[in-house]
Amino acid sequence: MRVVLLGPPGAGKGTQAQIIAGRLGVPAISTGDIFRANVSGGTELGTKAKVYMDAGDLVPDEITVAMVSDRLAEPDAKAGFLLDGFPRTIAQAEQLRSSLADLGQRLSCVLELVVDEDELVRRLSGRVVIVDGKPVQRDDDKPETVRHRLEVYHAQ
Ligand code: ADP
Description:
Layout: E1 2-6, H1 13-24, E2 28-30, H2 31-40, H3 44-55, H4 61-72, E3 81-84, H5 90-102, E4 109-112, H6 117-126, E5 129-131, E6 134-136, H7 143-155
Helix pairs in contact: 2-3, 4-5, 6-7
The site of adenosine-5'-diphosphate (ADP) has 17 residues, from helix 2 and helix 3.
């Protein structure tokens, strides 16, 4: 199975991705998680991505697409995958289509999570994540940034 999970920030993509990928026995590939791992690891990719992430903007397509292509080329993604948070722009969608065509693969399905806007803001502004055993608010979950991320999602 090759699945794409779409939905605005706060819709619950990360949570559902883990459940669905677990049932299907395929890796859940989250672009947000890969970017955050690179930021914590202090890699060159992380340094580039952090500026955009902190502002609630999308990381430029060329950086994102190269990262996802590398990830999809890893052995565990050969038999299937669930993409969480990618594609998020038309250019990314077109790139995914051509990468899959090159591999002779097709998507099995696209799932879209639909959630009311006020509920999204409520969830994101109130959520905490656990870092090194402590609850913290993600830098991009501040209320102003949350509104901006939702605008970006709808615009793109
Ligand atoms: P959310 O969907 O809740 O905004 P994610 O964890 O999926 O959170 O993404 C966090 C940030 O990582 C995004 O705001 C953006 O800066 C970056 N990002 C994630 N996926 C993409 C993507 N496909 N294209 C560009 N930037 C991305």
